[in-house]
Amino acid sequence: TMMLEKSISSNPLTKMMSSSKFYLKEQKQKDREKHKREMQVYNERNNKKFNEYFKRLQQKRSHSANYSGRHFDYTSYNQNIQVAASR
User: Fold this and answer.
1) Can you tell me the distance from the alpha carbon of 10 to that of 15, in angstroms, rounded to the nearest whole number?
2) Separation of alpha carbons 40 and 43, rounded Å
3) pTM (2 d.p.)
4) What's the rounded Cα separation, in Å, for the pair 2 and 84?
5) How far apart are CA 71 and CA 65, in angstroms?
6) Inter-residue contact 87 to 81 (CB < 8 Å)
7) Per residue in 27-40, pLDDT tens?
8) Which H or E run contains 29?
């Protein structure tokens, strides 16, 4: 076993192994952080698109009323019911 320990300690590949493991862990951590940043940018972009779509939808479907709050515009829905009832 003494001979094996000497051969391991004198082998340059085994000396570098611990540092390579360290660099591998460091690289994994950097990759995780990079991926996290990319996902945040992606989510912000998609949330922004969704919020813009939602605001446009609300503007189409509702308008401010005289009182505080929102009043939904169902005129087209009511017109369709009146047309169907008149047949």
Assistant:
1) 8
2) 5
3) 0.38
4) 97
5) 6
6) no
7) 899 999 999 999 99
8) helix 12-61
